[in-house]
């Protein structure tokens, strides 16, 4: 078009109703000095129509859009930026879900502190009562403070408190949920019946 004397080129899209295409040439275009513009189908049709009804020559003003001056910008956006944003979004939602799941699995410090505490006394140990902590496997020492869970299993206070608040809210021995309401609780289908504890 430049060789034939054109001062500018308007490329009309014969197929798409609307939308823009960023034009670029695969080869060397350094010797091209005339500007060119892309027109969507509707604009192309309007221009064609005007050129037929107007007798005098039309002047078309081509305006440069600063944002789309680099033709590869949108391609790079699609290739690099979009997947990165998607990955960040997936990672954040995964983190949030992990944290929420972790919070549901552990007991609150408040709930643990409300559990019974007793002192281990050698002379008062019953026949079926444990004499060692099932978490650290150490024998209880006379006078040591033990935490008694609703299921009646006991452990060192510091051992079981750490387990309940950071690992699982279940008894390490019988797997009973320590946050389960013991009285007047609604038992759902398939759930283990809660242990009733009389004061
Ligand atoms: Zn222990
Ligand atoms: Zn238990």
Automatic annotation (TrEMBL):
PANTHER family: OS02G0798600 PROTEIN (PTHR47168:SF1), RING ZINC FINGER DOMAIN SUPERFAMILY PROTEIN-RELATED (PTHR47168). Residues 133-175 form the RING-type domain. The lineage of its organism: Eukaryota, Fungi, Fungi incertae sedis, Mucoromycota, Mucoromycotina. It is a single-pass membrane protein. The chain crosses the membrane at residues 67-92. Its main location: membrane. It comes from Parasitella parasitica. This is RING-type domain-containing protein. Keywords: Membrane, Metal-binding, Transmembrane, Transmembrane helix, Zinc, Zinc-finger. InterPro entries: E3_ligase_sorting_rcpt, Znf_RING, Znf_RING/FYVE/PHD. It comes from the Eukaryota. SMART domains: RING (SM00184). It is found in: Membrane. GO terms for molecular function: zinc ion binding. PROSITE patterns: ZF_RING_2 (PS50089). Pfam families: zf-RING_2. One of its GO terms (cellular component) is membrane. Gene3D superfamilies: 3.50.30.30, Zinc/RING finger domain, C3HC4 (zinc finger).
């Amino acid at each position: 078009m430049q060789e034939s004397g054109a001062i500018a080129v308007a490329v009309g899209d014969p197929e798409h109703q609307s939308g823009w295409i960023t034009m670029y040439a695969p080869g060397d275009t350094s010797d091209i000095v005339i500007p060119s513009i892309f027109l969507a189908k509707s604009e192309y049709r309007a221009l064609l129509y005007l050129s037929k009804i107007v007798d005098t020559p039309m002047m078309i003003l081509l305006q440069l859009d600063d944002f789309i001056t680099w033709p590869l910008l949108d391609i790079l956006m699609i290739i690099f930026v979009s997947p990165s944003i998607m990955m960040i979004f997936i990672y954040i939602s995964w983190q949030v879900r992990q944290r929420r799941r972790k919070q549901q699995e552990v007991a609150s410090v408040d709930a643990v502190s409300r559990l019974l505490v007793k002192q281990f006394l050698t002379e008062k140990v019953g026949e079926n009562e444990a004499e060692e902590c099932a978490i650290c496997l150490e024998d209880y020492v006379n006078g040591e403070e033990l935490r008694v869970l609703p299921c009646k299993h006991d452990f060192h206070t510091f051992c079981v408190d750490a387990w309940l608040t950071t690992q699982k809210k279940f008894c390490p021995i019988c797997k009973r949920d320590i946050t389960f309401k013991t009285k007047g609780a609604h038992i759902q289908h398939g759930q283990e019946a809660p242990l009733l504890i009389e004061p």
